[in-house]
């Protein structure tokens, strides 16, 4: 029987640490500012943005959501981003994905100042991560949250065999860079990886991180006994329930540590977003924060 990794509890502790940091910042006259741009009325995005706003205000982060209708021109968004880049009360900017098809998402990501790129999607920040540069720069919040979770559980990646499934810029690719920087041997699998090769690689994996959006892709029969299994997937089933990319019922008896869905990686993402916002605010205003949760 695997030990469950309680993402909810770890995220709660991380949010408490961000709240402390926000208090320290406010003593220095700084309120961390997060600007969220939402284009269109995608119901899932509405929920994500509302959750981000709520968590931010509880942690002492000043979040503002700027809403645009789905027909908004790209130039309007670019002008808004330029304005936010210049606004010293805004430390962190994100554009909620997905944006409508007539908007070039890459152009939008590149318009955000790398110093305010709280999602870590700007090519400059991705380049720093891949080059394993020292110093502070924002890193995508989901993989960073996973690193925090692993550290919290005492899972060390150095020398381990890590298999990541899914190569999105949101999760898999930055996860690959982080695990490699932590001295793991890392395989990055994707939709063109043959099933038998995936199975073979998984059989040897000490740590498995799955982010595909394919419900039940990894089963207990794929896993090495005692493996640490991090399930990033969120899939809504016909009956309304949420499941991950790992078949929990068969994987849990084989794994050593496993994240549930929901209540695993999900809560870590927003908590890490707030953590990054507070760190950017500290950086912009020359305030030194005590290292507490800064695991990477
Ligand atoms: P994406 O669609 O951008 O990428 C999916 C990746 O999975 C691709 O690289 C693709 O090659 C790979 N893939 C697809 N089918 C595969 C298969 N059969 N075998 C192996 N690889 C396969 O997705 P994403 O944005 O990275 O999200 C992945 C999942 O993680 C989704 O369910 C999403 O909802 C979830 N997610 C959760 C969080 C969180 O905070 N918990 C954050 C981001 C994404």
UniProtKB/TrEMBL annotation:
The UniProt annotation places NADP(+) binding at 166-168, 234
Give me any GO biological process, just one. Answer: methionine biosynthetic process
Q: Which key words are in the record?
A: Amino-acid biosynthesis, Histidine biosynthesis, Hydrolase, Methionine biosynthesis, Multifunctional enzyme, NADP, One-carbon metabolism, Oxidoreductase, Purine biosynthesis
The pathway that the record names for this protein is: One-carbon metabolism; tetrahydrofolate interconversion
PROSITE patterns reported in the protein's UniProt record: THF_DHG_CYH_2
Q: Which domain of life is it from?
A: Bacteria
Looking at the record, the residues that make up the Tetrahydrofolate dehydrogenase/cyclohydrolase NAD(P)-binding domain are 141-282
Q: Name one GO cellular component term.
A: cytosol
Q: Which InterPro entries match?
A: Aminoacid_DH-like_N_sf (IPR046346), NAD(P)-bd_dom_sf (IPR036291), THF_DH/CycHdrlase (IPR000672), THF_DH/CycHdrlase_cat_dom (IPR020630), THF_DH/CycHdrlase_CS (IPR020867), THF_DH/CycHdrlase_NAD-bd_dom (IPR020631)
Q: Annotated Gene Ontology MF terms? A: methenyltetrahydrofolate cyclohydrolase activity; methylenetetrahydrofolate dehydrogenase (NADP+) activity
Which CDD domains does this UniProt record tie to the protein?
Answer: NAD_bind_m-THF_DH_Cyclohyd
**Its catalytic activity?**
(6R)-5,10-methenyltetrahydrofolate + H2O = (6R)-10-formyltetrahydrofolate + H(+); (6R)-5,10-methylene-5,6,7,8-tetrahydrofolate + NADP(+) = (6R)-5,10-methenyltetrahydrofolate + NADPH
Record-annotated Tetrahydrofolate dehydrogenase/cyclohydrolase catalytic domain positions: 5-119
Q: Does the keyword Acetylation apply?
A: no
Membrane spanning stretches:
none
What's its EC?
Answer: 1.5.1.5, 3.5.4.9
Q: Which family does it belong to?
A: Belongs to the tetrahydrofolate dehydrogenase/cyclohydrolase family.
Role description: Catalyzes the oxidation of 5,10-methylenetetrahydrofolate to 5,10-methenyltetrahydrofolate and then the hydrolysis of 5,10-methenyltetrahydrofolate to 10-formyltetrahydrofolate.
Can you state the subunit structure given in the record? Homodimer.
Q: What is this protein called?
A: Bifunctional protein FolD
């Amino acid at each position: 029987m695997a030990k469950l990794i309680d993402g909810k509890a770890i995220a709660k502790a991380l949010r408490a640490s961000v709240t402390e940091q926000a208090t320290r910042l406010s003593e220095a006259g700084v309120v961390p500012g997060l600007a969220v741009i939402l284009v269109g009325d995608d119901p899932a995005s509405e929920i994500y943005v509302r959750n981000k706003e709520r968590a931010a205000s509880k942690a002492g982060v000043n979040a503002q959501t700027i809403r645009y209708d789905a027909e908004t021109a790209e130039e309007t968004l670019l002008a808004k981003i330029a304005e936010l880049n210049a606004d010293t009360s805004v430390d962190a900017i994100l554009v909620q994905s997905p944006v409508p098809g007539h908007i070039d998402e890459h152009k939008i990501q590149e318009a955000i100042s790398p110093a305010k790129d709280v999602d870590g999607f700007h090519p400059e920040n991705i380049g720093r991560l891949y080059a394993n540069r020292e110093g502070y720069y924002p890193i995508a919040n989901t993989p960073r949250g996973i690193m925090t979770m692993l550290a919290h559980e005492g899972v060390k990646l150095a020398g381990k065999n890590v298999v990541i499934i899914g190569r999105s810029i949101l999760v898999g690719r930055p996860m690959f860079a982080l695990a490699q920087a932590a001295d793991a041997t890392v395989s990055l699998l994707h939709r063109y990886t043959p099933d038998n090769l995936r199975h073979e690689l998984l059989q040897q994996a000490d740590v498995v991180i799955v982010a595909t959006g394919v419900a039940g892709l990894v089963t207990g029969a794929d896993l090495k006994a005692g493996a640490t299994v991090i399930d990033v997937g969120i899939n809504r089933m016909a009956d309304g329930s949420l499941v991950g990319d790992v078949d929990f019922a068969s994987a849990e008896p084989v794994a050593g540590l496993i994240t549930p869905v929901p209540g695993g990686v999900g809560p870590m993402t927003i908590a890490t977003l707030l953590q990054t916002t507070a760190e950017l605010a500290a950086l912009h205003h020359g305030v030194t924060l005590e290292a507490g949760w800064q695991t990477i």
